[in-house]
């Protein structure tokens, strides 16, 4: 049992950083604590938060999925094209979700049937998908045009941003699934000790496949959200999202002292990074400060998660 | 009596020889095919400028990753380090009016420093290499913006003339490439340092029980990686003729893919495998471009090659058990 | 009265690359019976259990559980047919709570699929009460519990599944005496109710206490199945270990004037409770203890892998202040570890690399360049003088037999200037001829003036070859015996605890 002090530190450090920054910003930056700004933060963080929730699903099953930085731009372009061709919104959405899930299944099979390392194989898939995207769009951004009602997603109900509500719904759904169902327990067991999970009767392969498919669905949804956000499918989307999403996934593990991937941590992590992004701009801090802050927060997270364990961790590829 | 028949009397060199043969066969076959069928492929100017020089740069950066992977780790900051080292060297050179060689040395020092910090966290503080090097990427990015006093990605800085001239000279680039590759090979496969590094990468516990200073050698892989990526960044910058803020970051994926390709063919993480991977990919790309494939398909080709190779290698591994 | 067995395993064979783990093994268990399964490490016990559990698939043979043939059974199928397992490595998930662990894979849930936590916790609490562990809060994460408590959780989990057949693999290694008594009471109750039990253990005194029948596996084969009461311990051990190497001449006892090369004073650690002894040059000292007595932990302290909480280690008269493995190696120590595959050899590297691993410094030029030809020649010399059977020195260590692998580990250390050798279970998984060779090598080492410690769980091996032996029991040295003056029975008496059996 970790000593009390270590546990307290882990549990509350990132939270304190979060709270502390919040307080400092409220006091020092004039327009920070307004409803408008706060909901801005939520809006800005939501997209990455949803992506990170999807990535987290795979991480919770003990694997990783880098292919989202290839699938999201591709799916976004497909979605835009369909809307432009006057397909109904729901149909286009369903189609994109379906493709996302299929990509997830493909990733899962590479890992479960061919026993490939998930990092390596999803990188390959990422390349493949970004290649498809280039082929499909010629490498340019596509605007969605007038037929699409952006307000559906990026509008407001009263003071509440709809995207925020969407985020909450997705969060609650994933939270319940990963923490309160047999499947969630199975994922946690598979991640920690695959053999123990198997001995307990859990079908390890099926668990991983479902996790990848779930992530694929979430990534598909994110692509639609990103289209709504940017009014189109952006060319630089892929490179921009990979590292920040992975950062949120890591930071999310140590928020709340859980030391393991968890859904609530993702939300807090996304909000923390979003808050930094937003406020540093408000404060007119130089641009380089944002990535530096990201790096520092990440370092603090891992330092905390790691107290006392100096064993070298190796990567098996 | 226990029946422990030695099933496969296959020795270490024999296994490697067989898969090496397969890979080389494919490589040579593609080369011959392109020489015959692709107009302009088998000319000095094409082979040198469009194949060897770009491949050489990527290979050098990927050699850094190779060393780290041989020791059982990973370094996500290779691209960023390459960019930063070059940036620091260029900016300082402009201020202090340095020659080429001191610039290179300066870049190497920067890379070594970054690598050492990464190595410190991984080897002595036990932090996951994934996370350490990921946060390095962010910190380096911030530093890059700070140093170049700009806040837009892709801003250009001019370089001194001698450097640009050297950069476009194949003798310089290929010479540097050969020196680096050769040295890394000696380091990793002929020196005692490389032996210890590989031992740690293969089985940390056995290395510990055999008295190897495993923490030191783990740290060493990251420091060496930093040096190599700095050299690669230097080569890249001089080749392009300008320093771009944020350059090098696209090389992260490549520097990871090449050792994996090499491993699939040569059965282990190795310098020769990485170089093979670089040449193979750039040869295929070169050939396809000559045939008129639009450059946008680069990623598609790389991805297909990677997936193809690892899937085949995965199938083969399954058959062996 | 002929009862139908609840479990029948017929002619089970299983092969892994390079080794035949099981060869046509038959095994059956009757309802209400406690059937012990014994054998050395590597004999095939855990492979057999894993095949039963559905984790491995047998290459050939049949399994019949309760009259039903098990073909292509997954672990879930096995559990559904009333077979529960308590594994040696526990197979629990440390960061799940106690209750979550007990119900992993079979959590109660409501109509929406959401786990009913109250019910889960409540039932987990009563599952623990059934094994008399009342003080544990089931909502705590498992890794907050002591190892013994975790073992009880694993037991509670298995019992809660209401099995028809219960399999226990080394269940008592982490338990206190009361907990063992409690466990045996529960097992006896279950047997009375007709539940069949497979009990795997190295602790022969327990086997005699609780089992009705005992089956011995050795080198993947079933050597025999006996009624426990009717089999004398000596014969049991002989079956487990195999053909006795009859004609070993023991090592010469060392004169009292020989210099002391190793002194250990009052080592204390989690599994070692105050061990002191000394070793002289040229002496072959045996440390005998059952599996779990603390041998490996003691050796790890001596070799510098772990740091003891308390105690002194003095090598050749020099007190070692900060012990670490490189330091100990520089002082001339060498360790051939218990698990030679995972800890002693780089399996996927050739013999040349393995042999020169520790002594690499002597094969380099200028402090860095490896003289490969010299290295290879040296390896060839070693292969010859130790009579290692291998096609070439470039062969990967993975493909050598157990005995030869052990010799490679020894070759590694002989390439250094070690003069103090520690061997942890060197003959496990080695055939008779290989054992003779290893014993000869040990004696040669002492004849050349090195100090040698042989740590083993085989009392006869130590008694035959060592001049002096220490018996380790539950972390303490409870006897120091001169092998020429005591009988094997005396040794075994101490190994089993030195108390008259109940």
Q: Can you tell me about this structure?
A:
The complex is a heterotrimer of chains A (about 325), B (about 325) and C (about 500). Chain A has about 325 residues and is mainly α. Chain A has a single domain, classed as ABC transporter involved in vitamin B12 uptake, BtuC. Chain A is built from 13 helices and four strands. In chain A, the strands form two sheets. Chain A has a two-stranded antiparallel sheet with strand order 1-4. The mean pLDDT of chain A is about 85. Chain B is built from 13 helices and two strands; from the N terminus they run αααααβαααααβααα. Chain B has a two-stranded antiparallel ribbon. In chain B, about 55% of the residues are buried. Chain C has a six-stranded mixed sheet, sandwiched between helices. A six-stranded mixed sheet of chain C has the order 16-19-20-13-21-22, sandwiched between helices. Chain C is of the alpha/beta class and about 500 residues long. The longest helix of chain C has 16 residues, at about 175-190. The model of chain C has no long low-confidence stretch (mean pLDDT about 90). In chain C, helix 4 packs across helix 5 (about 145-160). Chain C has 17 helices and 22 strands. Chains A and C meet through helix 8 and helix 9 of A and helix 2 of C.
Task: Compile the SSE list and pairings.
The complex is a heterotrimer of chains A (317), B (321) and C (502).
Chain A: H1 4-28, H2 35-60, H3 68-84, H4 89-112, H5 118-137, E1 142-143, H6 151-154, E2 156-157, E3 160-161, H7 162-180, H8 182-192, H9 194-199, H10 204-230, E4 232-233, H11 237-254, H12 263-282, H13 289-305
Antiparallel strand pairs in A: 1-4, 2-3
Chain B: H1 12-37, H2 44-70, H3 78-96, H4 100-124, H5 129-148, E1 156-158, H6 161-168, H7 170-189, H8 192-202, H9 204-209, H10 214-240, E2 242-244, H11 251-266, H12 271-290, H13 298-320
Antiparallel strand pairs in B: 1-2
Helix pairs in contact in B: 1-12, 2-7, 2-10, 2-11, 2-12, 3-4, 3-5, 3-10, 4-5, 4-10, 6-10, 7-8, 8-10, 11-12, 11-13
Chain C: E1 7-16, E2 19-29, E3 34-38, H1 45-53, E4 60-65, E5 68-69, H2 75-80, E6 83-86, H3 98-102, H4 117-130, H5 147-160, E7 165-169, H6 177-192, E8 196-200, H7 204-210, E9 213-218, E10 221-227, H8 233-241, E11 260-268, E12 273-280, E13 284-288, H9 295-303, E14 310-315, E15 318-319, H10 325-330, E16 333-336, H11 340-344, H12 351-356, E17 364-365, E18 369-370, H13 372-385, H14 402-414, E19 420-424, H15 432-447, E20 451-456, H16 459-465, E21 468-473, E22 476-482, H17 488-495
């Amino acid at each position: 049992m970790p000593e009390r002090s270590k546990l307290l530190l882990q549990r509350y450090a990132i939270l304190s950083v979060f709270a502390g920054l919040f307080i400092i910003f409220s006091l020092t930056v004039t327009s920070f604590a307004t409803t408008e700004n706060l909901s801005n933060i939520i809006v800005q963080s939501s997209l990455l938060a949803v992506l990170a929730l999807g990535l987290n699903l795979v991480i919770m099953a003990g694997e990783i999925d880098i292919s989202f930085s290839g699938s999201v731009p591709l799916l976004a372009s497909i979605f835009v094209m369909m809307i432009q061709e006057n397909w109904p919104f729901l149909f286009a959405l369903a189609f994109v979700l379906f493709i996302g899930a299929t990509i997830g299944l493909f990733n899962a099979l590479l890992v479960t049937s061919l026993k490939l390392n998930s990092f390596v194989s999803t990188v390959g898939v990422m390349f493949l998908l970004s290649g498809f995207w280039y082929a499909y769009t010629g490498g340019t951004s596509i605007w969605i045009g007038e037929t699409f009602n952006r307000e559906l997603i990026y509008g407001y109900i009263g003071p509440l941003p709809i995207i925020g509500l969407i985020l909450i719904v997705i969060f609650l759904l994933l939270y319940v699934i990963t923490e309160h169902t047999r499947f969630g327990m199975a994922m946690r067991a598979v991640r920690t000790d695959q053999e123990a999970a198997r001995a307990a009767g859990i079908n390890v392969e099926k668990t991983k496949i479902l996790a990848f498919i779930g992530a694929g669905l979430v990534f598909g949804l994110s692509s639609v959200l990103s289209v709504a956000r940017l009014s189109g499918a952006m060319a630089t989307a892929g490179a921009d999202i990979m590292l920040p999403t992975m950062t949120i996934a890591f930071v999310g593990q140590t928020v709340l002292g859980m030391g393991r991937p968890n859904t609530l941590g993702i939300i807090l992590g996304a909000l923390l990074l979003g808050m930094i992004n937003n406020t540093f701009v408000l404060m007119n801090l130089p641009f380089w400060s944002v990535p530096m802050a990201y790096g520092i927060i990440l370092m603090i997270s891992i330092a905390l998660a790691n107290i006392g364990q100096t064993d070298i961790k190796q990567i098996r590829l | 009596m226990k029946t422990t028949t030695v099933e496969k009397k296959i020795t270490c060199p024999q296994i490697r020889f067989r898969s090496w043969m397969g890979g080389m066969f494919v490589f040579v076959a593609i080369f011959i095919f392109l020489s015959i069928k692709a107009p302009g492929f088998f000319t000095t100017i094409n082979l040198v400028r469009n194949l060897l020089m770009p491949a050489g740069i990527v290979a050098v950066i990927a050699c850094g990753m190779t060393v780290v992977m041989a020791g059982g780790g990973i370094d996500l900051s290779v691209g960023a380090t390459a960019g930063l080292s070059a940036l620091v060297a260029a900016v300082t050179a402009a201020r202090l009016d340095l020659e080429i060689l001191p610039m290179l040395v300066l870049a190497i020092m920067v890379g070594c420093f970054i690598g050492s910090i990464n190595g410190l966290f991984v080897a002595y503080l036990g932090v996951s290499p994934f996370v350490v090097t990921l946060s390095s990427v962010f910190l380096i990015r911030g530093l890059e913006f700070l140093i170049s006093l700009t806040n837009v990605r892709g801003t250009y800085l001019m370089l001194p003339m001698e450097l640009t001239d050297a950069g476009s000279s194949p003798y310089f680039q290929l010479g540097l490439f050969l020196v680096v590759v050769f040295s890394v090979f000696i380091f990793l496969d002929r020196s005692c340092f490389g032996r210890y590094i590989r031992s740690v990468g293969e089985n940390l516990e056995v290395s510990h029980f055999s008295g190897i200073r495993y923490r030191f050698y783990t740290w060493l892989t990251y420091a060496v990686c930093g040096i190599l990526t700095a050299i690669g960044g230097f080569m890249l910058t001089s080749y392009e003729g300008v320093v771009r803020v944020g350059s090098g970051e696209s090389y992260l994926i490549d520097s990871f893919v090449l050792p994996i390709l090499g491993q699939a063919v040569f059965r282990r993480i190795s310098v020769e495998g990485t170089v093979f991977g670089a040449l193979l990919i750039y040869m295929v790309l070169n050939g396809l471009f000559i045939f008129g494939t639009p450059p946008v398909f680069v990623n598609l080709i790389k991805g297909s090659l990677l997936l193809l190779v690892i899937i085949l290698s995965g199938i083969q591994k399954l058959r062996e058990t | 009265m002929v009862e139908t067995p609840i479990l029948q395993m017929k002619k089970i064979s299983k092969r892994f690359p390079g080794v035949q783990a099981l060869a046509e093994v038959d095994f059956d268990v009757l309802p209400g019976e406690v059937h012990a399964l014994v054998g050395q490490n590597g004999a095939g016990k855990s492979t057999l259990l894993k095949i039963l559990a559905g984790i491995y698939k047998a290459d050939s043979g049949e399994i019949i559980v309760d009259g039903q043939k098990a073909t292509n059974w997954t672990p879930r199928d096995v559990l559904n047919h009333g077979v529960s397992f308590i594994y040696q490595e526990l197979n629990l998930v440390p960061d799940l709570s106690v209750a979550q662990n007990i119900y992993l894979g079979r959590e109660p849930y409501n109509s929406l699929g959401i786990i009913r936590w109250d019910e889960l916790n409540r039932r987990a609490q009563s599952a623990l009460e059934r094994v008399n562990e009342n003080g544990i809060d089931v909502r705590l994460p498992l890794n907050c519990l002591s190892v013994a408590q975790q073992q009880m959780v694993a037991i509670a989990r298995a019992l809660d599944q209401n099995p028809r057949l219960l399999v226990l693999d080394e269940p008592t290694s982490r338990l206190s005496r009361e907990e063992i008594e409690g466990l045996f009471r529960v097992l006896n109750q279950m047997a009375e109710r007709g539940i069949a039990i497979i009990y795997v253990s190295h602790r022969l005194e327990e086997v005699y206490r609780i089992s009705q029948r005992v089956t011995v596996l050795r080198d993947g084969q079933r050597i025999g199945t006996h009624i426990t009461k009717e089999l004398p311990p000596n014969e049991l051990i002989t079956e487990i270990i195999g053909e006795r190497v009859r004609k070993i001449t023991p090592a010469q006892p060392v004169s009292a004037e020989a210099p002391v090369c190793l002194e250990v004073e009052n080592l204390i650690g989690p599994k070692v409770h105050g061990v002191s002894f000394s070793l002289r040059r040229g002496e072959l000292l045996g440390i005998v203890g059952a599996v779990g007595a603390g041998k490996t932990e003691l050796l790890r302290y001596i070799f510098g892998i772990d740091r003891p909480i308390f105690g002194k280690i003095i090598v050749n008269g020099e007190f070692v202040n900060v012990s670490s493995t490189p330091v100990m190696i520089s002082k001339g120590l060498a360790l051939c570890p218990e698990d030679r595959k995972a800890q002693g050899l780089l399996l996927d590297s050739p013999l040349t690399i393995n042999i020169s691993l520790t002594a690499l410094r002597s094969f380099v030029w200028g402090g860095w360049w490896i003289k490969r030809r010299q290295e290879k020649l040296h390896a060839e010399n070693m292969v010859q003088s130790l009579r290692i059977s291998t096609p070439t020195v470039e062969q990967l260590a993975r493909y050598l037999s157990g005995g030869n692998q052990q010799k490679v580990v020894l070759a590694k250390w002989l390439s250094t200037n070690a003069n103090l050798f520690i061997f942890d279970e060197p003959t496990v998984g080695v055939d008779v001829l290989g054992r003779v060779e290893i014993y000869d090598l040990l004696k040669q080492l002492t004849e050349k003036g090195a100090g040698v410690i042989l740590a083993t769980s085989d009392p006869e091996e130590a008694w035959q070859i060592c001049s002096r032996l220490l018996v380790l029991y539950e972390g303490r040295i409870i006897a120091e015996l001169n092998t020429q003056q005591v009988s094997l029975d005396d040794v075994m008496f101490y190994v089993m605890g030195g108390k008259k059996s109940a």
